[in-house]
Amino acid sequence: MTDSPMSTFHRRLPGVVYGGDYNPEQWPREVWPEDVRLMREAGVRLVNLGVFSWSALEATDGELDFTWLDEVMDLLAAGGIAVNLATPNAAPPPWLAENFPETLLVDRQGTRVSIGSRGHFCPSSPVYRDRSRRIARALAERYADHPALAMWHIGNEYHAHCFCDLCDDRFRGWLRERYGTLEELNRRWGTRFWSQHYSDWGQVHLPRPVRGSVNPSRELDFARFTSDLQLELFTGERDLLRSVTPQVPATTNFMQFFRLVDLHRWGQEVDVVALDIYPDPANVNSLADAAFQYDLMRSVGGGAPWMLMEQAAAAVSQWKLNLVKQPGRMRLGSLQAVAHGSDSVMFFQWRASRQGQEKFHSAMLPHGGTDTRTWQEVRDLGEELVRLGEVATGRTAAQVAIVWDWTNWWAVEGVAHPINSLDYRDIVTRHYRALWRRNVAVDVVTLDDDLSAYRVLVVPNQYLMTQAHSAAVRRFLEDGGHLLVSFFSGIVDEDDRVHEHGHPGALRNVIGGHVRDFSPLPVDTAVTVRAAAHQSLLDGGFRAAAALWQDDLVTESATAVAEYTQGYLAGQPAILDHHLGAGRAIYLGTQLDDDALGELVAAVLQRAGVESVHAAPSGVEVTERQTANDRFLFLLNHGEGTATLTLDRSGVDLLTGHAVETRHEVVLGPGDVAVIRSPLSRVASSGS
Question: Is 71 designated active site?
Answer without folding.
Answer: no
